[in-house]
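Example 203.
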Amino acid sequence: MLKRIAVFVSGGGSNMQAVMDKIDSGDINGKIVLVLSSSPKAYAITRAENAGIPVCVLPKDLAQREEVTLAKLEEYNVDCCILAGYLGIVSSAVIQKYENKIINIHPSLIPSFCGKGYYGHYVHEAVLAYGAKVSGCTTHFVAEGIDTGAVIMQHAVPVMQDDTPETLAARILVQEHIIMPETVRLFCSDKLKVEGRTVKILE
Ligand code: GRF
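Predicted structure in complex with 5-O-phosphono-beta-D-ribofuranosylamine:
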């Protein structure tokens, strides 16, 4: 049975595209049935429309956003959600209803350089300012708080001496496009087992 996937986006949607491509190549036992965007201008919306996937632009008001999100996830009979470059907050009610069924990708090696204020270029600026020698990306289940859920996959990249936030972000994005689809593939094949803070990969 194909898992029914909802994707939450805010920007370019390259992570969503990476998942779409792996679905198209038959690697993922899932189907993207809905895209929810926090911004009407997100290029991710164009990607979804080109693929014939229904799009919902979420309200700015948090209470209305929660109400619309829950209604849409119900309406489309969604099994799991992925946050692909999503900059909004997922409300407790959604997290509780979809416990260990919401996957986020963060462009650092959690628990470093994550949490409130660490998103987009701010992450890479902090890594460079600290003088870290390694960074990377993490997929994790979404729990209460920001970037706090159980870690699923991580890929590391070297920080080069002449890196800028942009060059580091680009190196990490390549790895995001590997671990995001792989995480979704494992989830859709029921190969992820959460044991407390640990996620076991049954493969
Ligand atoms: C990426 O740079 C990534 O670090 C983070 O969100 C940004 C935009 O991703 N996950 P996308 O191209 O919208 O998927």
